[in-house]
Task: structure prediction
Amino acid sequence: MVLEMLMKKERRLIIALDVMEAERALSVAESTSGLCDALKVNYPLVLSAGLGIVDRLADYGDVLCDFKVADIPPINELIVRSAFDHSASGVIVHGFPGADSLEACIAAAEGDVFVVALMSHPGADMFFLPIAEEMAAMAVEKGATGIVAGATRPKSIARLREVVGSLAILSPGVGPQGGDPREALKHGADYIIVGRRITGAPDPARAAEGVLEDIRGM
Ligand code: 3DU
Result:
């Protein structure tokens, strides 16, 4: 059974809050609420501000915990459970540790589970590119909500779309990493994930509006 996606799909934008201070994350969340479909947190914020930041951010919208979970099944279960215990709406996990590790994530989840199929950075060519379709197929087979596929490789997104059918595709890697958000969406992504282009801007709401302007009509 495929998990039913909880996240709304109105703006097609997920904001990655890769900042170190809780107050900065909360201020970006507040100023951009209504401009994105979800907020994403990663280790930098959670390691500096604590997992309680997820509960606080959840006041502004759905929060995805991008913990790229990649351990043995019982540890994955504890990590995923912690995220949902702190009001996460979804988690991002790795598929390469194997089917049993992914199954543990899905069993422990009380919301969306997205499997990283293909990372966006240049080094992903070495190990990720050859296994991307396999990761995507496993996400489908095990009942994940969707996959993550880098916007820097739009043609790969199109191939992965064929593998995952109607599952959601989240696409990071636009802006400083070089991906084009329109291309990612045109090739089959459902959402783009944007971090520094928004969090590093003097006016994050304005920057988010700029991203929405770029993808308007998609
Ligand atoms: O490059 P940005 O600042 O827009 O941030 C991208 C975010 O997406 C960041 O949190 C990173 O950890 C995440 N991400 C990737 O960039 C690439 C992936 O393959 C998976 C997640």
About this structure: Residues 117 and 136 are 5 Å apart (CA to CA).
